[in-house]
User: What shape does this take?
Amino acid sequence: MIWDQNSPPQTTIRDLLDDHAQRAPDTISHVFAVDGSTLTWAQLRHKASNIADRLTAMGIEKGESVALCLPNSRLAILCLFGVFYGGFRATPLNLVAGPEALGYALTHSNSRFVFVASGQADIFEAVVQAGSVQVTVVPVSDQIEWPDVSGWKQRHDVESNDPALLMYTSGTTGRPKGVLHSHAGLLAGGWNTGIAHGLSASDRALCVLPFFHINGLCVTLIAPLVSGGSVVVCDRFSNSRFWDQCGQHGVTWFSVVPTIISHLLHAETDPGKDVVKKLRFGRSASSALAPEVHAAFEKRFRIPMIETMGLTETAAQILSNPLPPKRRKIGSPGIAFGNEVAIFNDHLQAVEAGTSGEVVVRGPNVMLEYLNNSDATQSSFTPERWLRTGDLGHMDKDGYVFITGRLKELIIKGGENIAPREVDEALYGHRDVIEAAAFARSCDRYGQKVEAAVRLRPGSPVTQDELITLCSQKLGTFKSPDRIFVLDELPKGPSGKIQRMKLADMTIAED
Assistant: This one.
């Protein structure tokens, strides 16, 4: 199979891995930053095949969930691809979730088997002791500690439309939803990234986001699988090691979230000239990138930063700015690549360019369904199979989308809609603000009022009043926060995206 830039691969992850192992067996597919070890396509296929056979011998049915509670590592990559290869449903679990959330995911997904890293053993013991789940734990430390199983079973056949991934949403407004993707859907998501960024077999990604988040998995693992490129897998993001990791391993691109971009910008470490020369671009995803941060990053590091947008439900990317020298629009996550994107009004009808509404998407990368949740699935799709994203914005005449907020996060003050992003961007205009998020607080006078939380550069003398004044100058008094809380850390999801829905509860004691 040859990388085709005209259409996404209509195949399975197993077949694509087999193809790479046959065409380029000795080519490196993965580098592991922790020790510099590598995997070739042939090694990856061989080990994934062995894991698939082991899982099959354990009696796991085709399409059944196999849960993974593993940090980014060599064995995590092997287990993940082993699950894909065997025709099972990979179900990555959030490593920072508590016992209740883990128990819910295991029960909801009907997982009977779970790979558990040694660092998560204690929390899984608490899950099992609570009696909420019945699972067979397969410990993973320096090796996979397989249970004793006798016999051999025929490997399952796998088709492109068979389920491949069950990934849970963050659940900030209720129980997490299980997003179900097929093999073809995942590969289409990776293909979207590939065509947007011009990926080739000579490209090497830096993966610092966890693969239990769709950006880490589909963008930095599946996109290189589709294009035949390679990946440097880091156990986690490190501000002090980031540029060294890029230089040491010949990285040509990376995908991060805005909070990481802000942290890199406020750090003293700079990439060397050789690193900058090798890097084609950086990629921002998962939440809006403040224009001030975007511009400051490119000015300091001389590395093009490509803003994008994606969802768990769309196997990551739906929008991206083109690579230079093509036109990029700061403040926009770009144009559609590989799928259709439109703006709908309240009557689910497309609106004209420049008119605000809800962002909708349709394409081969869109999820199959929310597992065991037909009501949520039905309400998320229009009759024409457009997925409602819940994001608000408008599209200009050139097809660039501009996001103004989320339906569930809008602040409605005195009947007027205020997008939290407006306030965020005003706060990021101060050089000492590393993280910022505006949110709604109930009040008797207006129904809701605007408040915000920030994380500041260590030692910053800036006061709450100065930040409120800054917002007033940019937005006017009505849209400016009544209070701004300075926190040591803002709550984040597994990708590093700030969870603004939690901020009102976090700060209520200080109100």
